[in-house]
Design a protein that fits this description.
Layout lengths: L8 H22 L16 H9 L14 H4 L21 H4 L4 E4 L9 H19 L15 E2 L6 E2 L4 E3 L4 E2 L7 E6 L3 E5 L7 E3 L5 E6 L2 H8 L2 E5 L6 E9 L2 E9 L22 H4 E7 L3 H14 L4 E6 L12 E5 L6 H10 L5 E4 L4 E2 L6 H10 L4 E7 L5 E2 L3 E6 L6 E7 L3 E3 L2 E7 L6 E4 H7 L11 H6 L6 E11 L12 H10 L5 H13 L3 E6 L1
Parallel strand pairs: 3-12, 13-14, 13-16, 14-15, 18-25, 21-26
Antiparallel strand pairs: 1-26, 2-5, 4-10, 6-9, 6-11, 7-10, 8-9, 11-12, 16-24, 17-25, 18-19, 18-24, 20-21, 22-23, 23-25
């Protein structure tokens, strides 16, 4: 019997499209998700909640009385800082002249009252975006309850994006029962096992939820040693919070998702010589910024060459009519006229290729006490990132400009910045050196760390502490007073002539009204750093 041709066009269309539809549906289901939500979420307990729980306990402990230990409680963060000047207990005559004065600045006052609310909203939006960029699940506070049956890694676990690791330390220490069960749950990856153990049941292998069970505890624990985690969503520099659960108990641990750290190493030629001396020309580049003061710059270079003839000197120059500085191992880079000091510092350090850079002002003068070997020795043997020396004036007085910098949380209004003169402790093994947060404009530093912090190019003429404020938490800073550099004299005799360059320099360096520069700094502190005020002493 012969088959009749299908005459209905609709049936023909169905016969063709239905198999194709099923085929493409299968292909689509095999494709990985292309849309990834890279926003950070913050599950867990907030610090504010923890602080509240200390003073407002749950009903279980509400009946227990307590006495506040004020001397300790006063040290706890309050998230409501204020910048205030402490008034002296006794007002003495001439107190302002006899004692060091404390200054207080409120940065909000630099803005017009009509624009404050709008700027505050914009700053808060930027701050929230900053938190999303700089925080991950690894930063969330997770309280480990008394999960005695569960053992798991609490810190140091990481995986490269889209790679697989074995999760170490998983174990169950439970009392005798008929069936032992452990469940694992993740969000950015899947679980599996590198080997299967007898008498262990595994469900959900290759999935974000996996369950392992057995009537034998030893078998289950042996199986847990083979559990793997595979990252499946490419979102580096984040973390996956894994939930580990057994009957009546629950725990969390974090797997950081990170690319392998690429080291930045330096040539073996840069290392100490055979006799333990340092190859300064291979380890250090001297960087400076100049503006019109070519007489001072040439005096600086001449003094450097007296002690370090082969060290490379990098010069950033934003003079109006630049002069070419000739000489071996000198790199001079020109900028637009009056571009500014911090912009010049950025340019200079961007060209440094040695392990360390030495920053000097263009009116410094090297002497026999400018021993770079001492500063190199400190950075080679300690964890410091930056170590400053001392600048000696013609009067014989030396300054190290040691400052302690701290930030106090202040809630939605912004934080409080505190800067005070001083240091923390002496650097062990180096009796002339201390640990601090800010130093003078003569310092040796690890090049990669200074480049990481950078200099805000909006700060043009008067700025220094701002670099160390931006570097707080990044730079480990020290200061030594036994390595000095001289400061060229600023005293000008009345009958001395003043050339055009010197006149122009003074107009830029010492403007008639510095109010604009002060307001710029305060705006940056408020909007960029989210400070509401500063106390400086």
């Amino acid at each position: 019997m012969s088959m009749r041709p299908v005459r209905n066009p609709l049936c023909c269309l169905l016969l063709v499209t239905l198999p194709l539809g099923i085929f493409f549906l299968c292909l689509w289901s095999l494709k990985p998700d292309r849309v990834v939500d890279v926003r950070y979420r913050f599950p867990g307990i907030s610090e504010g909640h923890l602080r509240q729980a200390v003073w407002e306990p749950s009903e279980k402990y509400a009946h227990i009385s307590y006495k506040v230990k004020e001397i300790v409680a006063g040290l706890l963060p309050k998230n409501g800082c204020r910048c205030e000047k402490e008034e002296p207990v006794i007002n003495l005559p001439f107190a302002k002249h006899l004692f060091h004065q404390v200054s207080v600045q409120q940065f909000e006052q630099v803005f017009r009252e009509t624009e404050r609310e709008e700027l505050k909203k914009r700053r808060e939006q930027e701050y929230q975006q900053f938190l999303q960029r700089s925080h991950s699940s690894a930063d969330v506070m997770i309280i480990a309850k008394a999960n005695t049956p569960l053992e798991y890694p609490t810190q140091g676990l990481h995986v490269q994006p889209l790679k697989t690791i074995v999760i170490p330390g998983l174990s169950l220490q439970a009392p005798s029962r008929k069936l032992y069960r452990v469940n694992l749950t993740a969000t950015l990856g899947t679980f599996d096992v590198a080997a299967e153990v007898d008498e262990v049941t595994i469900r959900g292998d290759g999935q974000v939820h996996m369950s392992l069970s057995s009537s034998r505890l030893d078998n289950l624990n042996r199986q847990l040693q083979f559990v793997t985690y595979s990252n499946t969503i490419f979102n580096p520099n984040t973390a996956d919070t894994v939930q580990l659960e057994t009957d009546g108990h629950q725990a969390f641990f974090v797997i950081k998702i990170r690319h392998a750290t690429i080291p930045k190493l330096y040539s073996s030629e840069d290392q100490p010589g055979s006799k333990g001396s340092y190859n300064i020309s291979g380890l250090v580049t001297i960087a400076t910024k100049t503006f019109l003061r070519y007489d001072k710059l040439r005096e600086l270079i001449s003094s450097i060459r007296k002690y370090y003839p082969n060290v490379t000197i990098v010069i950033a120059d934003d003079s109006d009519k630049p002069q070419k500085i000739e000489g071996d191992f000198i790199e001079q880079y020109f900028m637009p006229f009056g571009k500014g000091w911090f912009a010049g510092r950025n340019l200079a350090i961007s060209q440094v290729t040695t392990k360390y850079l030495l920053w000097v002002d263009d009116d410094f003068i090297f002497t026999a006490n400018t021993k770079l070997e001492k500063l190199v020795n400190i950075l080679e043997k300690t964890t410091l990132d930056l170590v400053g020396g001392a600048v000696r004036e013609k009067t014989g007085f030396s300054t190290t400009f040691r400052h302690q910098i701290s930030v106090e949380q202040g809630g939605e209004e912004g934080d409080c910045l505190h800067t005070r003169m001083g240091h923390y402790h002496v650097l062990q093994g180096f009796p002339n050196c201390v640990v601090t947060d800010g130093v003078v404009n003569f310092f040796l530093a690890r090049t990669d760390k200074v480049q990481r912090v950078g200099f805000d190019p909006r700060l043009t003429r008067v700025a220094h502490s701002e670099f160390f404020i931006d570097g707080l938490g990044i730079l480990h800073v020290g200061s030594c007073d036994d390595v000095t550099v001289d400061h060229a004299t600023k005293i000008k005799l009345p009958w001395s002539s003043v050339d055009e360059n010197e006149k122009t320099y003074k107009e830029f360096r010492y403007p008639k009204s510095s109010e604009a520069n002060v307001q710029l700094k305060q705006r940056l502190f408020y909007l960029k750093n989210r400070f509401k005020c500063m106390v400086r002493d």
